[in-house]
């Protein structure tokens, strides 16, 4: 294991400390060492945006704390849900009196801990509503949408939900916008190498040399097939072949495209893939309204990529256009 | 009539802690085959925190279970934090005002734990989860009591059924939780939750038998 760490069991706590020191203009610590908040949170009268999940996905989740984005985040162990207490403390840190929107991914642990945290918050008279991201197409068939897991599409859900809250939307409006965002978003991943949880010390799955796993999850969950390693152009076509028919996306649609590395793939290669994605969409007369390419939602040191496409309407367009300032997502008008 | 005193029952929780600590690596290994390999790490972290807290004060069975549940729920997270947190909380509640823990009280504790886990987890027997151990274990315990067997004999029936239930997960396809993403490929591996549930029930039963004899 070639890693820049101290104690493998302390990686999350040490990372959080470093993050707070580096980004003190954006984030602030809270009384709970596993909860970080936007420096200006809570904002009186604004719906608080909360997310959380297992660590190891940088910039997710704490990297999306900031202006017009997420107000507070609960951070779990590597690939393991934060505790109910951490979610509850994040709700409290984000609560500006207008309720809290908890926008998180569809994983059993997160669901249970959020559920328990909401019960705790209700005892305090705090209203929390949720949107559960399920954008990963290969993780379950379309008839079982509710079983699909949340992957990089979560970034767009936070962007939209964060923008709606910043523009003064009430809790129901924020939840509706975030739900609309994820309902119109589809993702797929391809993995080229496994990843290693430092405290475990060895990869917990394998991908053979010159092979790739199509549909891999953010924690190495197996995908739909293992094939020979393809070219970037072939990967782009394979990924679009899975996600475009699923919504389905059609000609004249306006979309946001998000290409994220899984941690160890050079950003250069993400642009190689993106250029073919853009060509194929162009040929299908699907109009790219905005694109984001980079490491947005990673999986430790896994090599690979996720492709996310979100279909826009007028409301989503306006919300995706809003400025944002967080470590992982910055957008300013020229 | 076999029983032990609630105030002497901390030993049961200590036995659970020891078995999880001893099997932490094994649990992570089997979790690595179909999950993300952290089950043993997280459970070990929870029980080790609990051990420290138990060492700092006098408890009985109900208090010790409550401390364990609170740590798992509040500090551990993952899927197992809420599941085992609920499991031990329900057990603690079911015995908190009982001076003596006899076969009937322990039956109520098992029933409450099962109901709690079913409520929060939403899984069924056959889904390849801890319920594949817990449900047959509780049923075997009940059947033994109805059969007129005493506390320690019923616990032995529970242990045997728990072991069998755990082994049954090897041939099952996971339907819920992270391993369900593997579909058919989850077959051939033990479920980590079913395995830790077996270890917990088995060590608790051994500790209770030692207390009542």
- Helical region count of chain A? 8
Estimated share of beta-strand residues of chain B: under 5%
| Tertiary shape of chain A | globular
What letter string, H or E per element, gives the SSE order of chain B? Answer: EHHHHHEHHHH
Kindly report the CATH topology of chain B: Serine Threonine Protein Phosphatase 5, Tetratricopeptide repeat
Instruction: Indicate the overall shape of chain B.
Output: globular
Number of domains of chain A: 2
| The CATH C-level class name of the largest domain in chain A | Alpha Beta
> N-to-C SSE series of chain A?
HEEEEEHEHEHHEEEHEHEEHEE
CATH superfamily of chain B: DhaL domain
Distance between the termini of chain B: 11 Å
Oligomer class = heterodimer
Sheet of most strands of chain A: 6 strands, mixed
Summing up helix and strand content along with how strands pair, one would put the structural category of chain A as alpha/beta
Biggest interface goes to: A-B, 31 and 29 residues
Give the CATH architecture of chain B: Alpha Horseshoe
Mean pLDDT of chain B: 92
Low-pLDDT runs of chain B: none
The helicity of chain B comes to: 55-70%
State the total count of DSSP E strands of chain A.
Answer: 15
Tags for this entry?
heterodimer, A: 334 residues, alpha/beta, Rossmann fold, Hypothetical Protein Tm841, Chain: A,domain 3, six-stranded mixed beta sheet, 8 helices, B: 213 residues, mainly alpha, Serine Threonine Protein Phosphatase 5, Tetratricopeptide repeat, 2 strands, 69% helix
Account of the 3D structure:
The complex is a heterodimer of chains A (334) and B (213). Chain A folds into 2 domains: 10-183, Dihydroxyacetone kinase, domain 1 (Rossmann fold, 3-Layer(aba) Sandwich), CATH 3.40.50; 185-312, Dihydroxyacetone kinase, domain 2 (Hypothetical Protein Tm841, Chain: A,domain 3), CATH 3.30.1180. Chain A is an alpha/beta fold and 334 residues long. Chain A is built from 8 helices and 15 strands. A 6-stranded mixed beta sheet of chain A has the order 1-2-5-3-6-7, with helices on both faces. In chain A, strands 10-9-8-13-11-12 form a 6-stranded mixed beta sheet. By secondary structure, chain B is an all-alpha fold. Chain B is 69% helix and 3% strand. Chain B is built from 9 helices and 2 strands. Chain B has helices spanning 10-22, 24-34, 39-55, 61-76, 80-95, 103-121, 131-146, 151-168, 192-212, and strands at residues 3-5, 100-102. Chain B is globular and about 50 Å long. The mean pLDDT of chain B is 92.
